[in-house]
Every structure is written in C-alpha cells, then in structure tokens.
Amino acid sequence: MSLVKLYDTTLRDGTQAEDISFLVEDKIRIAHKLDELGIHYIEGGWPGSNPKDVAFFKDIKKSKLSQAKIAAFGSTRRAKTTPDKDHNIKTLIAAEPDVITIFGKTWDFHVREALRISLEENLELIYDSLEFLKQNTPEVCYDAEHFFDGYKANPDYAIKTLQAAQQAKVDCIVLCDTNGGTMPYEIAEIISAVKKHITTPLGIHTHNDGECAVANSIQAVHQGIVQVQGTINGFGERCGNANLCSIIPAIKLKLKKECISDEQLRHLREVSHFVYELANISPEKRQAYVGKSAFAHKGGVHVSAIQRHPETYEHIRPEVVGNSTRVLVSDLSGRSNILAKAEEFNINLDSKDPVTQEILESIKDMENRGFQFEGAEASFELLMKKALGTHKNYFQVMGFRVIDEKRTDDQSPTAEATVKVKVGGKVEHTAAEGHGPVNALDNALRKALEKFYPKLKEVKLHDYKVRVLPAGQGTASSIRVLIESGDKQMRWGTVGVSDNIIDASYQALLDSIDFKLHHSEEK
Ligand SMILES: CC(=O)SCCNC(=O)CCNC(=O)[C@H](O)C(C)(C)COP(=O)(O)OP(=O)(O)OC[C@H]1O[C@@H](n2cnc3c(N)ncnc32)[C@H](O)[C@@H]1OP(=O)(O)O
Ligand SMILES: CC(=O)C(=O)O
User: Fold this and answer.
1) Considering only CA atoms, which residue is closest to atom 23 of ligand 1?
2) Is residue 17 one of the residues assigned to a domain?
3) What is the pTM of this model?
C-alpha cells in the first residue's frame, strides 16, 4: 500500500484564522499530540514573523518527538537582495528545523501586482532561494502559492515556476489552492497536466473558500500526490484550510492508502478535541468523523435500522476514529429510540410493554411544550423511571422564594433565596445569597439538601443555557433552561420549561440533584 505523508500546518496556517492564537506552550503540546497521531510533518510557524515562532523552534528541540519532522515556513527571498542576505531566509536556517518550506509566486498576476517584479525575476527568485536552502537544510518543500489559479491564467508560466523549483532539487513541490475557489474536477485535470512536466514528488495544500478543501485534497491523493497539507479541525485563513480530521480517515478508509496506523486513527477524535480545547473554541458538533453528532441518530426509522445493523445508517464504524454511536430522543423518535435509551441507562424495558408507548407520547407532548431532551438525557432518564414506577423520592420541595433587589440606581442588585424541603419526616428551611436569583436558588437548595446527602457537595454546575421559545410574546414568552452538571465521574444534562425563568431553572436544578442522588445509590 502506498504511503501518503501528512503535513500539518495547524500551528502556522491554522493560526492565521480569526480568533485562533496559541501560546508557545500550547504549540509544543499540540506538536506532541500530532506526533503521537502519526503526522509526518509539523509546520511550527514562520520564524521570520514573530518572537513566539522563534521560541517554538528553540523549545521544541528540548523534547523528543517519536517520528514527526518539524518544518519552518517562510517565503522566497525579497526581490532586491540575495538569499544569503535575506532576513527571512537567514531566520529560517537559524531556526534549525528538520525541514524548510517556502512559498513562491506561480500566478503571473501576483508577480506583477503583489511583488511588482518581472516574470523572469520571479523565476530567479524561486530558483536561487530554494537552491540556497537546499545547501543549508536536509529537506526543502516548495509551496507553489496560487498554483491552480496561476495555471488557469497562464499555464506555461505556472509550469515554468515549478520547473525552477525542480531545477533547485527540492524534495516536494506542493500545489496550493491558496484562494480556495478551485473545484474537484479542475484539481484532477490540472494535476494530470502537471505530471507531464514535473517528476519531483507532489503535494497538495487547499483552502476551503468554495467548501471543497477536503474534496480537493482527496481528489489530489486519488491522482497520486504523496503529501497532503492541512490543519486539525480545518482551522486556517478566511474559511479555513483542508481539515485533516476528515482527510486522514478518507485516505485510510476510502482510498485504502496508508498514512497513520489503525491504533493512531482511534485517537483522531481525541486530538481534534484537544486542539479545540487549547484554541478555546467549542467543538463543532456536526464535524464529519469526529463531531459529537457525526454518529448521532434521531429519526425513529434510523434508530430502528441501526439496531438491526449499524451500517444501515453509518458510513464507517465510529470506533475506528474514536467516536461512538449515539441515540437521541425527541419528537421524531419511535419506540426504537426509547428502547435504545433504556438499554443505555440499564433500564429493563420490553418493546411490547405499553409503558414504552406512554413514554414516547409523553416525550412528544413535552417537546411540543418546549422541552428538549437531546441535551438533557438525565431528565429523560428520570422521566423513564417515573413512568416505570422505579423513581425514588429522596426529597420534597415544599416551596421556595427568590428576592432580587436593587435599592438605588448606583447599587448592584442582590439576590437571596429561601427554600423549604422535606426529607423523610424532617423539614429544613434554608436561605442563601447568590450572584443573581438562579445562583441564589441553587445555593439554597444545595444548602438544605447537603445536610441529608453530603454527596451533593461533589456536584458542580458546568453550563447554564437559557433559550426563549419562539412564541412571539416578548418578555412573557416561555423559557427553556438547559443545565449541565458534573461530579468527578461524569457530566449530565437536565431541562426545565416555564414562562417564568426562575421556575424553568428550578425544574432543571431539581432534576440535576435528583439524578445525582439516584446515580450515587445505584453505584
Ligand atoms: C499564502 C500564505 O498563507 S503565505 C503566509 C502568510 N502569512 C503571514 O503573512 C503571516 C506572517 N507574516 C508576517 O509576520 C509579516 O507579513 C512578515 C514579517 C512576513 C513580512 O512583514 P513586512 O516586511 O512588514 O511585509 P508585509 O507584511 O507588508 O508583506 C508584504 C511584503 O512581502 C513580500 N512578499 C510577499 N510574498 C512574497 C514571496 N513569495 N517572496 C518574497 N516576498 C514576498 C511583498 O513583496 C512585500 O514586500 P515589500 O513590502 O518589500 O514590497
Ligand atoms: C502556502 C499557503 O499557505 C497557501 O498557498 O495557502
């Protein structure tokens, strides 16, 4: 099986994305993750650009990578100098990477407009920059910027720029779709034309402006190119770069070519989430292969079929990329969704038991009133237990009161809540303050119940989302509150709906506490 080399530019082109910035420490941690994933080349940055990138190349040498090569990025020399005097080229060599990659101009329009030099001068600049680098570095890649646009505008000149790089004996020539507007069929045609003139190994670097970056990269691999550049999660300039989290499984599972091992592929989802975490960006749910929804089944017909055979609605087994099948519960559910969830929660439920239908109808009715169980599986589990008569009443809330007060215009508001709960035969009446009314109510409820159930001290509130339901009644609209809670072992979601935001929050908080108590006892 032929090997396709993976070249990751998350740490360089990825950081050219709006909102993405990594500390040097983040870059080092990501580099190690990429190395473990089996990425062959890690482009760490542009040392001629900023001190952070210089520090990366210095620091990465202090720790050992298992197999990846570190690449430094830059450009061909400036027009009015020679390579040995060019600041950018000198800093690239000084960074002492395993590989140096420079980009140069292919498109005659860019040579004239961006560099403002003659076409001939640009060819000299490509050749002598690369030739000089080849004498000073073990491996050199050449990124032919705007190659596809350049080829379409002036094929002869575009090929001449590649020939200049080939003459300098570079190790790989990377065809770039820099503006990201090329279509997959053009990639196939142009690569086969290039191969008539160029014998140097070819690579591909695509951007996603036409939403075709992954498709274009796969098309290029199909055409026999040997290096694919991209970024984790598709981070990158404008609409992003080609997403390696989609390209890697496509190379292995669809094109049946070698790139990383099966074991490394099982860590793909983990690496994707790690990079999101360090970038401080919420993972994209609908991301192919690695997203939370990539194998989430909602329609009753789908759930029924995947239980008979997963391949009916899954294009690959999710485990091979470290993901898993999920069944969602909603008003699009059928009995199969309820039965699948019951099995997941270790609840015995017979498909012929009339309670299955009752639960289904109750969900459809509640979703119609604004509830949503997809992010609130703990509330759904409690609902099932109530329907089956296995729900236990650990406590009863006899009432609550919340006061939100702002006495003068220049004073911040204060919030206080009182609750009355009954546990066994004992009544507890407690008050607490908080940052706002919901937090005060949460504090009061826990304060009252922790006396009876000290395990509740472990529960932390991780997320609190409020959504106004679209009834068009302004501040009198119904509200849905989704809460995510967690302890040391797990996280769970609960939901509440009311036309009163405090009441909706109260319902979700109560379910969260109730769920924790049920699970502590079951353990
Ligand atoms: C397709 C890509 O993604 S390429 C990577 C793009 N990434 C970045 O630009 C991020 C890092 N860049 C930087 O930190 C800065 O732009 C630097 C340090 C590289 C250069 O900064 P400056 O010297 O201030 O120049 P500036 O940012 O305005 O860039 C334009 C200069 O680059 C030159 N240039 C652009 N492409 C090339 C090239 N392939 N070869 C040589 N010079 C080039 C232009 O001719 C222009 O030079 P001039 O001002 O002497 O006419
Ligand atoms: C080299 C590069 O980043 C590009 O052409 O998009």
Assistant:
1) 49
2) yes
3) 0.87
